[in-house]
Amino acid sequence: MHRTFQRHLPQTLGGFVLLIPLVFLSPRSARGQEPQGMTGRGVRTVSGQVVTEGEVAIPSGVTIVIEARDGKRSNEIHPDSQGRFEIRDLVRQTFVMTVSAEGFHPQELFLDLKDGGDTPVMLQIMLTRAPSTKPPSPIPALTDLSAPKNARMSFQQGAHSLQANHLDEARAKFQKAIAEYPCYARARTGLASIQIAARDLDVAAANLREAVRCDPGFPDACALLGKVLNNQKKFVESEEALKQGLRRSPDAWPLYDQLATAHYNLGQYGKAQDEWLRVIALDPAPPAELHAKLAAVYIRGGARDKAYAEMQAYLRADPNGRFASAFKATMPRLETSGARADTSPQPEPEQPPIPNP
Length: 357
Known about the structure:
This protein has 357 residues and is α+β, with helices and mostly antiparallel strands. It has twelve helices and ten strands. Helix 2 (149-163) runs parallel beside helix 4 (185-197), helix 6 (219-231) packs parallel to helix 8 and helix 8 runs antiparallel to helix 9.
């Protein structure tokens, strides 16, 4: 009746974008049932509950948006304090349902209402918690030294507000810092992180391009620009921006991470593998999601032993992470196909692009 729509929206600064069309990398977040019942002819009702881990209801701040495939918005609702919702009189076509809540990863689902008669559709949608928003990193930026005292003070206040997840207050402070000093790269990067959280990607990209123009050697701005462009599926443009950043900051692992994402989505799996292995070389304790990314690229290349080992590494690093359930279900299938446990991944020569299945 429905299937997970595999598109991860950008997280706030410090997160990662992974646009990988593999079923096992997208946790099944909705379980659908169709109980008996009738609605008006030619229309259907969708109802259910939004929960978090342990099937605990999310009491407030949840938004559900229903859009047609052409992007035309049909409904926007807010579930009650028990996470319950009901949407009536949806025409029998395919919709995209976006479910979001502050502090959680958003989910997007396909709703195919063309089949199944007029029976209502019941869903349980599980959201997973997102990591706390972090302020920009303390890597020195050229414009930090040029910014006047008032601009630096406003930036620091904005960074504290961002760390406390007070996004409106942080936005105002970053904007004040930029008004004081328009070429303040770190303040523009902080403001862009808030715009990404609000899904204002074009505005965020413009801020980040200006930050890079002001300070081409500031890796935070370059990495975040690559992340935005990857999310917009502008992979060639992302690759160019990230390579420019690496010429000035060759040891900044977030640049290699985003470059690998661009290569992966361009079908350049060997290059993606090499870039992600370089991340590990630069940061021996990388984020757990890097192991999920390597598992995906190894699957593409047919290296099932290495994919299995990366799934093991992910589960050790984040046993309850958002890919944990999917990996636990996938690993037994890899074992039956000949993958061996405890096989450590090693660098491989670059592989030619492999077409998507």
